[in-house]
Amino acid sequence: MTNDNVLREQALAFRALHVPGRPLVLPNAWDTASARLVEEAGAAAVATTSAGLAWVLGTADGDRLSGGDALAAVARIADAVAVPVSADIETGYADDATGVGDTIRAVLAAGAVGVNIEDGLYGDGAPLRPVAEQATRIAVAREAADAAGVPLFVNARIDTYLRGAGGLDDTLERAAAFLAAGADGVFVPGVVDPVTVKALAEGLEGPLNVLVGPGAPTVAELAALGVARVSAGSAVAEAVHGLVHRAARELLGAGTYGALAGGLDYGNLNGLMSGRRRP
């Protein structure tokens, strides 16, 4: 099977995992080790976290990481696992819609079969990109993937709740425009209360993705509300870096090692990292 055929098959497999009531669960990864651990734990797919990628590559999240650096990391992750990979590409690593198309072609070249494209803006201006402009960027992403013959899953991230820039009606209006432009699913971070999640799931014409962390409803509870995809986002990376911080403070302060208990065995982790996985 050629590489192009592998990519198409993985894209179709990834698309089929988005089932309301039986959600795809994604403990997001940021490097090859975290990706392989997620795969080894039984994940049906691996999704990257832009924040985790930015931190491990030495910069802050929020469109500060270059597209080249981000997609080089995505390529390493895709090469390291056998399951489908979805890339968090922030706002598209491009100033205009044409550039988004270039990014999508680079995503496919990296071996990923899904993307998140967010409508949030960074800086001192408006918190969200205008609906029509964002819809155009999504349409160009769709066209670029279709031209390559790969049914890339385009997940339209809507930051209304995350940025305090709108409620249910605003979110559904944006979602309708983005789905009409070619998005396959809708990601609404910043909301986990069951009433709103249920209203979103029922009001969308596509699968709903929510962001979870401590205090959020369980996967089973979200499934019952009609959610089709559950993402941990940067939460796993945050937990890992929290452990580093606690262990360092304990070692440098008390001179003890309690925080290091429960670590993965060196031999098992080293063995997990041997060889490549992508067929």
UniProtKB/TrEMBL annotation:
Record-linked InterPro entries: ICL/PEPM, Pyrv/PenolPyrv_kinase-like_dom, Pyrv_kinase-like_dom_sf
Pfam families: PEP_mutase
Domain of life: Bacteria
Keywords, alphabetical: Lyase
Molecular function terms from GO: lyase activity
Name of the protein described by the UniProt record: Isocitrate lyase/phosphoenolpyruvate mutase family protein
Native organism: Streptomyces yaanensis
Gene3D superfamilies assigned: Phosphoenolpyruvate-binding domains
